[in-house]
Amino acid sequence: MREPDYVVDEMISAKAIAARVEALAKEIEAAFAGTEKLVVVGLLRGSFVFIADLVREIDLPVEVDFLEASSYGDSMESSREVRILKDLRGEIAGRDVLVVEDIVDTGFTLSHVIHLLRAREPRRLETIALLDKPSRREVEVRASWTGFEIPDEFVVGYGIDFAQRNRNLPFIGKVRFPRG
Ligand code: PRP
Fold first, then answer.
1. How far does the centroid of ligand 1 lie from the alpha carbon of residue 108, in Å?
2. 74-126, pLDDT tens digit by residue?
């Protein structure tokens, strides 16, 4: 039988993620207590599992919206460009907004999205990332809430892909190349 190109070792279990998501939701509820409406913005595509679990744990009036940003590197330059492929459907001026990201790596995506949305003058703008790889940071940015700080490993699952695969794994796994 042909050996797989790579294997995935469990790094953060589904149970550990669920417990962390529940705790984060309680912190968000407390931070936004009394809000008229919290606009929860998921950054596509990686955040779709996290946002689905998170909003179901937040006991506040919530509106869900999505933004798709794509970042791409230019090997000749140290700077990265971030393009908006799909913008929000709703207005956020004067609103309480929570941006939901699956992972902060170099920080370019989150930093760009924060600047973009701040310019629309929300009442309050906070961010949450399930995973953070601080060792990879190129732009100074930090989410208001972080689920787990992780080392510089290639991770998949719970929404995060490797070449569009493995987004459906219920846990966060570490990719390993047996022959590499
Ligand atoms: C990934 C991830 C974050 C971003 C983090 O998205 O979902 O949005 O990269 O990287 P950065 O901190 O270096 O900017 P990707 O562009 O792979 O798209 P996807 O969410 O559709 O998988």
1. 9
2. 544 445 788 999 999 999 999 999 999 999 999 999 999 999 999 999 999 99
The answer to whether residue 33 sits within a structural domain is: yes
- For residue 61, give the nearest of 30, 43, 35 by alpha carbon: 35
Residues 6+ apart with CB under 8 A from 90: 39, 63, 65
Q: How many domains does the chain have?
A: 1
Residue 162 lies in a domain: no
Question: Which residue minimizes the CA distance to atom 22 of ligand 1?
Answer: 46
Q: Is 41 exposed, middle or buried (0-12, 13-18, 19+ CB in 10 A)?
A: buried
**Domain range enclosing 113:** 13-152
Query: How far is Cα 77 from Cα 72, in angstroms, rounded to an integer?
Result: 11
Q: Is 4 among the domain residues?
A: no
Given ligand 1 and candidates 105, 115, 130, 167, which is best to mutate, with the most ligand atoms within 8 Å of its CB? 105
| 50 part of a folded domain | yes
The pair of three-digit structure tokens given for residue 111, joined into one six-digit string: 């930093």
